[in-house]
Amino acid sequence: MSGERQLVWVGRVAVVTLPAEVDLANAEQVREDLLSVVAQDASLVIADMTATSFCDSAGVAALVRVARRAAANASGLRLAASAPAVTRVLGLTGVDKLIKIYPSTAAALADPGAGVAVDEAAPSAPGQAGSEGRASQPG
User: Fold this and answer.
1) Which end of the chain is least crowded, N or C, by CB within 10 Å?
2) Cα–Cα distances in Å, from 66 out to 38, 84, 135?
3) Does residue 86 register a pLDDT over 90?
4) Mean pLDDT throughout 75-81?
């Protein structure tokens, strides 16, 4: 994990603090950092984006890839995001249908529900080939 990201474990749940901007310059490192936590047998990974004010398509793609890998590993990914610019991008791209988004890490930790709803019909990461369908929210 890169030195600029904070990682806190709460049992088998990992909370990873993401940077102020998630974009082409750092999206690959963010993806690798989150995947390394998934590989450490986390039952759930919460990406703390509450201090993130910008997320571009590279960041969205990284989050989608992590969500899919987490689901394949019987784990889950949740996002804690509160900046309107970030939540708007996640909504416009359909990521909010794929990954549960919470207004805070406390809310993400408190929800006993499923962490992610990923299936083969899930939206592709921007710029990636794949189905145009959308995964439904569990519940």
Assistant:
1) C
2) 8, 22, 15
3) yes
4) 97
